[in-house]
Design goal:
The structure is a single chain. By secondary structure, this protein is α+β, with helices and mostly antiparallel strands. The protein is 23% helix and 29% strand. It is built from nine helices and 16 strands. The protein has a four-stranded mixed β-sheet. Strands 1-6-5 form a three-stranded antiparallel β-sheet. It has a three-stranded mixed β-sheet with strand order 2-10-9. Helix 2 packs antiparallel against helix 3. It is flat and about 105 Å long. The termini are far apart.
Length: 369
């Protein structure tokens, strides 16, 4: 009986890329895997055919030979009509499929290696994340803040061991390995599922006499005060990592980290644009027409700024070095002062008469286009 075309088996064109071959095979492997179709001989056969086609098409040399000479060019291994598992060399791709089928950590002895599991020992504590609100003035001049937060800290009664006497013993379930191994057999042979020991939590040891204060955890949740020095020029989305300031791990495990995320508060007068600060300056018509010296607030105090005669509304003046410090520590941004001509909304009789006289003067009215 003539064998089916390998490209047809996987539903591919003859110019399919390597990635397309992998995707097509994974799709069929997931569909026809024997463990998903127990007792279905047809599905088992389709799975074998897809695996045989994949073994050839994923190998550049075998694929080239097959494209030129067909099944006959592949020699005895495939001309016998039976797929040989011993010839399958792409175990990594199969392992990915098995992890999709059974979950991460389920890897068969057929691949000659174990699943990825961590070594036995004390567990690291959790990282903590907190938000820190800062004003633009604090970002500009620098500040040191004190934070109060609840976290797991070492139990002083047992000094973090979790034991009343300080004694521990080897876990009888995993025999100190921190892992338990369960074997099963399937169509492919023996598979080994290695998971964290549920009794000791992967530590390999258990507490002989639990500490009454922490119930054998070696840690207790309590309130801590932590000082943090905020660098100059930080902004929204920046964070400050404090190593080892997170939750302490159980029974002597190392502490996680504390991540302090910056939350920049909006300012009633200033707007931030990178390292530059923008300030809207309202001025009356006589001030901009005649010119004046005005007091302008900045993040570092008030300064005097000269406004030349005839300044137009929307004109932007630059105050050098009055912006925020740059995060790299080199220099500062500027403060941009934008002039807005203020128009009064209420006028008395005398003011109206004066403005009416001004409006009739030639140099007061805008030029006609």
């Amino acid at each position: 009986m003539a064998k089916r075309d390998y490209y047809e088996m996987l539903g591919l064109s003859r110019d399919a890329s390597e990635e397309e071959v992998k995707k097509a095979y994974r799709r069929q492997a997931m569909q026809y895997h024997p463990d998903r179709n127990p007792g279905d001989k047809e599905a088992e056969e389709k799975f074998k055919q897809a695996s045989e086609a994949y073994e050839v098409l994923i190998d550049p040399k075998k694929r080239s030979t097959y494209d030129r000479f067909g099944h006959e060019g592949l020699g005895d291994t495939f001309s016998r009509g039976g797929f040989q598992w011993s010839d399958f060399t792409h175990a990594t791709d199969f392992e990915d499929i098995f992890e999709n089928l059974f979950g991460e950590g389920f890897v068969g002895d057929i691949f000659g290696r174990r699943s990825r599991t961590r070594e036995a020992g004390p567990q690291r504590g959790s990282d903590l994340r907190v938000s820190l609100q800062l004003s633009l003035e604090e970002i500009a001049t620098g500040v040191e803040k004190k934070l109060r937060l609840k976290k797991f800290q070492r139990c002083e009664a047992c000094r973090g061991t979790g034991s009343r006497t300080g004694a521990t013993q080897t876990c009888l379930l995993c025999h100190g390995a921190g892992q338990v191994r369960q074997s099963s057999r399937s169509f492919f042979g023996q598979f080994v599922n290695i998971t964290t020991c549920p009794r000791c939590g992967g530590e390999g040891r258990i507490v002989a006499e639990p500490c009454p204060s922490c119930a054998g955890e070696g840690r207790m949740r309590s309130t801590a005060t932590i000082s943090v020095k905020v660098p100059l020029g930080v902004g929204n989305g920046n964070y400050i990592p404090l190593r080892g300031q997170g939750d302490v791990g159980p029974r002597g495990g190392p502490a996680g980290d504390l991540l302090i995320f910056i939350e920049e508060l909006s300012h009633p007068h200033f707007a931030r644009h990178g390292e530059d600060i923008i300030y809207e300056l309202p001025m009356g018509f006589p001030q901009v027409a005649l010119g004046s010296e005005v007091e302008v607030p900045t993040l570092y105090g008030k300064v005097l700024m000269k406004v030349p005669p005839g300044t137009q509304s929307g004109k932007v003046f630059r105050l050098r070095g009055k912006g925020l410090p740059r995060a790299d520590g080199y220099g500062k941004g500027d403060q941009l002062v934008r002039v807005n001509v203020w128009v009064p909304t209420k006028l008395n009789k005398e003011e109206k008469e004066l403005l009416d006289r001004l409006a009739k003067m030639e140099d007061i009215t805008p030029p006609k286009k």
